[in-house]
Amino acid sequence: MHETRRLSRLFAAAVGALGAVVLVASPASAHVGNETLGFDSGFLHPLTGLDHLLAMVAVGVVAATWRRDRALWLAPAAFLLGMVTGGLVGMIGMPFPGAEVLIVASVILLGVAIAAAVTDDRGAAWVLPVLAFAGLAHGHAHGAEAPVSAHPVLYVIGFLLATACVHAAGVGVGSLVRDRRLVRVSMGVATASAGVLLLTGA
Question: How would DSSP label each residue in 78-98?
Fold first, then answer.
């Protein structure tokens, strides 16, 4: 049993490391200006904002620290599903009042979730809807800022892939800190505090 848990942690850490490698290895020569296809601009867009990065990493950490096996995919899936919906809504020009504030607020709430290490169904009752709604706000921002010449499908695939890679990196981090209460709580507080600072400047 102990060996199985150890292997699952190593696997999660390896997935996170792979996600980080993919991000670092993404071509430095990728040109956002080459928007005839849209994949490059879609992939790079989520990586250009601190609020987006904090939220995406936090989703992965929440997934890894949640004491339910299915959360490892359920939490990121909720966020990504919200992103797809929000991205499409943003790309067709539908408004989303207060989206920027909601994006920053999601960073705060995810920081709280990390610090609290949600472990039960009562936590799922608010964490999953928060993740889906946060994904909706983040996705809308990506979609609304899509280059006019970008291919919609490739652009969406690009920002979803980038988001999934950052989620994987967050899972790797979360797998290392979930049993280290002080480190986990400190990470959660730091994330929420960064959200508060971003909110005051929003």
Answer: HHHHHHHHHHHHHHTT---TT
126-15-171 Cα angle (round to 5): 25
pLDDT in tens, 69-109: 666 788 899 999 999 999 999 988 888 888 888 889 989 98
Is residue 160 within 8 A of residue 83, CB to CB? The reply is: yes
Only one residue has tokens 């797998």, namely 175
- Angle at which helices 152-177 and 181-200 pack, to 10 degrees? 140
pTM of the predicted structure, to 2 decimals: 0.75
- 170 secondary structure, DSSP code: H
Residue length, the chain?
A: 202
What are the pLDDT digits (tens) for 56-68? 999 999 888 876 6
Distance CA 90, CA 103 (A): 14
CA distances, 123 to each of 62, 167, 168, 180, 189 (Å): 11, 20, 22, 20, 18
- Which helix (H) or strand (E) segment holds residue 62: the answer is helix 50-65
Give the Cα separation of 58 and 51 in Å (integer).
Answer: 11
Longest dimension (CA), the chain: 53
Residue entry with tokens 């950490």: 61
Q: Which pair of structure tokens corresponds to residue 39? A: 């994949």
Q: How far apart are CA 108 and CA 91, in angstroms?
A: 26
**Residues contacting 102, CB < 8 A, separation 6+:** 133, 134, 137
- Residue 79 burial by Cβ neighbours in a 10 Å radius (0-12, 13-18, 19+): buried
